[in-house]
Amino acid sequence: MTWIIGHLLAIGIGISLGLLGGGGSVLALPVLVYVMGIAPKNAIAMTLVIVGTVSLLGSISHWRAGNIQWKTGYIFGAATMLGAFFGARLATLPFITDNIQMLLFALLMLVASIIMIQRSTRTQKSDDTIPYPPPVCKYCWLWLMSEGIIVGGLTGLVGVGGGFAIIPALVLLGKVPMKAAIGTSLFIIAMNAIAGFLGYLGHVTLDWNLIFSFILAASGGTLLGAYLTRFVPAARLQKSFGYFLLAVAAFVLFQNRGVFSPKPTASTKLNLQMNASVRDTF
Question: Is the pTM of this model over 0.85?
């Protein structure tokens, strides 16, 4: 039953990627950790493989529809790949614990949910899938690459693909039309995932059978999501998806609440043991 539930959720991950151009990784990681029982660091690396592969497959239909701007994708993608590799290397250091990674992940999910909910309240214009204000500056390549490094770093550190940040960056800084931003975002997420995975390689254990089965399930969902973009305005799904992410973020924060509790020192543990011994004596 757990296997079935996990793979049904994987289909939902793919639909999110195909329809919204993002949101896949923020669902993939909690599914692997809390449904499939994978350790967080291993799950983050597996998430990068799954979401990267599925995003690459999902970008094919957008490429055939002419919805990928390759030049912008390569420029932004190069910056995100640099950040993702070093973010993953940072995550392998001893002081970055599983709880810290999941806590950071939950906080980012919280931000993503708020952004999605706020966007859903804006008035949709022309044929844009999700409304955004006009580009904020005429020449924004420096800001675009700077944000790419930051988004990539978060990808490597906690496994988020960054679609919720990549798409507005492409629209506002790269002056990319909304539909092209979704397709280009999938291509950039794939580049992100490759670099992040290389940063984890050799430091984690991977369940390749589960990875491949998740890829198959999510790939089917991505193709379905890309097809639904012709009929379903993604803006209608933004609010519901945002509230869903908000609930998942709250759940992950609750599960990792122990990171805020001070750990007992060696002397404290010794005192507790001595007190227990005295109680047992009397």
Answer: no
